[in-house]
Amino acid sequence: MFSTEGSTPTAATPGVNPGELQVVVSGAGRAYEVHLLGELDMSTANTLREQLLGLAAEGPTHVTVDLSHLEFVDSTGLSVLITGLKRIRQHGGDMALRSPTPATRRVLEITGLTEVFSIS
């Protein structure tokens, strides 16, 4: 398991400071889960980008990104998700999004990304 994490808890997301992103990757072989906690924006997007590109290089069959604890996402964060999806597909895999919060789902709907990603 790989982890990039914040240090002090907030009331909304345990273990993550406001303005930070915690990325926890679990799994092995052909399937991985990426759990996002906190905020995915211009200042934190590189953390997720590095993890997704690293997973793509390993050639997984499937990556699931859990958004249930993602409090905020901006256009830079969406761009990282799209780039990750493209790179993983280039390596013969696929990426799905799981359990977006209502606010995150709304952003995905407004941007048309519900047509790009498999979302459960």
Can you walk through the features of this model?
By secondary structure, the protein is α/β, with parallel strands linked by helices. The chain has a single domain (2-8, 17-119), classed as STAS domain (Transcription Regulator spoIIAA, 2-Layer Sandwich). Helices cover 32% and strands 33% of the residues. The protein contains three helices and six strands; from the N terminus they run E-E-E-H-E-H-E-H-E. A six-stranded mixed sheet has the order 1-2-3-4-5-6, sandwiched between helices. Helix 3 links the parallel strand 5 and strand 6 (118-119). Helix 1 runs parallel beside helix 2. The longest helix has 16 residues, at 75-90.
List keywords for this structure.
6-stranded mixed beta sheet; 120 residues; Transcription Regulator spoIIAA; 6 strands; disordered N terminus; globular; alpha/beta
Largest sheet: 6 strands, mixed
- How many DSSP helices? 3
Beta-strand segment tally: 6
Strand content: 25-35%
- Number of individual domains: 1
Computed Rg: 13 Å
**Averaging pLDDT over every residue, what do you get?**
88
- Name the CATH architecture: 2-Layer Sandwich
Q: Output the strand order for the largest sheet.
A: 1-2-3-4-5-6
- Helix content range: 25-40%
Would you tell me which CATH topology applies? Transcription Regulator spoIIAA
Termini separation comes to 23 Å
